[in-house]
Amino acid sequence: MQIAAPAVSEVTVSSRRTFAFRGVLLLIFGLAEGGLVLFWYQVPYVTSSPLTFVLAAFLLADGLAMLVDSVIVLHRRGRWMWLAANALAGITAALIVLLAIRSPLTAFAWWAIATGLLEAWAPLSRHDGTSWRITMAALSVALGLFILAGPLRDAVRLLLTIAVFGVLTGGLRVQAARRGIRWIETP
């Protein structure tokens, strides 16, 4: 006897695909940032502007992905406000990183905290307690607070920590989204 799969709106599938895309962005960001930091360590006369550019490009791409998802959800009459707020945080952080070159890591830290809180607010407000989304949110907030607390004074170690965060959370996001999409699309 076959049991029918629960009806799930396309909004959920769209959001999970965006979640997977954002995970891939995090993976690329982590690998690129880590590679640049290691290159920077070997060639000390290289400026930090490529690192800043990679950071700004990631923040902008993440914000734009969330903006596209919020528009899709809005047209399907879903809950779009937290997506739009998350998009605004990413785009604003990218502009701050590009324009206020003195403190790109501080802008990144505040972005991590803001997106982490918004990421946690969505499942908690619906009382569905999606554990993978809350875990990603907690990691993001923890990284932001870690950067602001400043226990690592060495820029190379701090940037490598951010790169490892990107790779780990990117992989977790992709895996969580894959499982979610497979569950939705399997009858």
SSE diagram, text form:
Layout (H helix, E strand, L loop, with lengths): L9 H33 L6 H27 L5 H19 L4 H22 L5 H19 L5 H31 L2
Helix pairs in contact: 1-2, 1-6, 2-3, 3-4, 4-5, 5-6
Task: Describe this protein's structure.
The protein has one domain. Helix 1 packs antiparallel against helix 6 and helix 4 runs antiparallel to helix 5. The chain is an all-alpha fold and 187 residues long. The chain is globular, with a radius of gyration of 17 Å. It starts with 9 loop residues before the first helix and ends with a helix. It has 6 helices and no strands. The longest helix has 33 residues.
- What percent of residues adopt helix (DSSP H or I)? over 70%
What distance lies between the first and last C-alpha atoms, to the nearest angstrom?
13 Å
What does the overall shape look like? globular
Order of helices and strands: HHHHHH
- Which structural class best describes the helix and strand composition? mainly alpha
Quaternary structure of the protein? single chain
Count of separate structural domains = 1
Taken as a percent bin, the fraction of beta residues is under 5%
SS element count, helices: 6
Radius of gyration: 17 Å
Unreliable residue stretches: 1-11, 181-187
Average pLDDT metric: 78
Number of strands: 0
